[in-house]
Amino acid sequence: MHLTTDSALHKSSYADVRLDALLSITGRMDGFLYRCRNDQSYTMLYISDGISNISGYPPGDFIQNKVLEYVSVIHPDDLERVFAAVNTALEAKRNWNVDYRIVPNFGRAVWVREIGGGVFDDAGDLAFLEGFVIDISDRKMIEDSNAYLMTQLKDLNELLSAQKQELQLAKQKSDHSANHDALTGLPNRRAFHNQLKLAMDGSHASNSAVGLLFIDLDRFKEVNDTLGHESGDALLQHVSSQLQTLLRSTDYVARLGGDEFAFLLFGDPELSRETAVAAAQRVVEKLRIDVPSPAGVIRVGCTVGVAMYPADASDPKGLLALADRLMYVGKKGGRNRLMTVNELEAA
User: Fold this and answer.
1) How confident is the prediction for the chain on average, in pLDDT?
2) Do 304 and 213 form a contact (C-beta atoms < 8 A)?
3) What is the mean pLDDT of residues 26-45?
4) Where are the domains of the chain?
5) Is the dihedral of CA 126, 132, 135, 141 positive or negative?
6) CB neighbours of residue 24 within 10 Å
7) pLDDT confidence of 3, banded at 50, 70, 90?
8) Residues taking part in catalysis
9) pTM for this one?
10) Do domains 2-135 and 189-346 have the same CATH topology?
11) Alpha helices of 185-305 — where are they, by DSSP H?
12) CATH number of 2-135
């Protein structure tokens, strides 16, 4: 009996210590504890003093729902979310963790976080709901501020990204305009000179050859004088599209200005003068164009000067000058034809 009494006293003393500790901790926390029945009104059986700091109402107003039901101080916009969180947790027999607002009898709403759970009896039926609620207003303010800053930062990043994209597009357009002919869309003289140098450098490194076709239209001035510059521009655009149909993946065509075009064949170690001549013949055939006019059909054609690197010239300037000269000699010799160094020497 003596041992039993000591054991009972020990248990009672331990329970008192736990209760004192719980009450002390509860008094220090910026929040409160509660337990309520599982009935229609969630009758409050216990609620700690911290409820008065958060809601402005004394604990006694809530005990047995004497003055207020606890749900009456939950912000109406949050009620549905709170009930959903609690019901979902109870069905799964786990704790709920939900943030919501309490509407106090002073000032503005207070954000709280509730962590709670159900207390089930031996039969497995829900008897009570209990939990603790802490004030998270300061944390919520920081979270909202951070969320706002993150939104601002995201918007700023999207704006900067859009501006960067616009700048890139503007640069691409600027680069394209600087290196392409506005009328035909072909690379212009500037781009052609750069490409010619690259082709020659690449040819030197691979011991291959570069073929240059210098193309000048025949009777283009007659089209302009007879039908006007609009018809002349339309003809140049048609010539451009025709030349592009002859391009291989390694070929390059450009408009040098006026009715002059240049066609580069490069990058193929098997390239020879015969290959370049064959390409020039296809150009001559492709650019035989009949242009109707009131005075009769104007038979447009072209004359092509064919020069090779390194066989005919040693640098870009010399190769272009030679091809231009060959074209000029071809014009003097009857137009609508091609001219090579071999033919020039024979002549």
Assistant:
1) 88
2) yes
3) 87
4) 2-135, 189-346
5) negative
6) 10
7) very low
8) 259
9) 0.55
10) no
11) 189-206, 220-227, 229-244, 273-286
12) 3.30.450.20
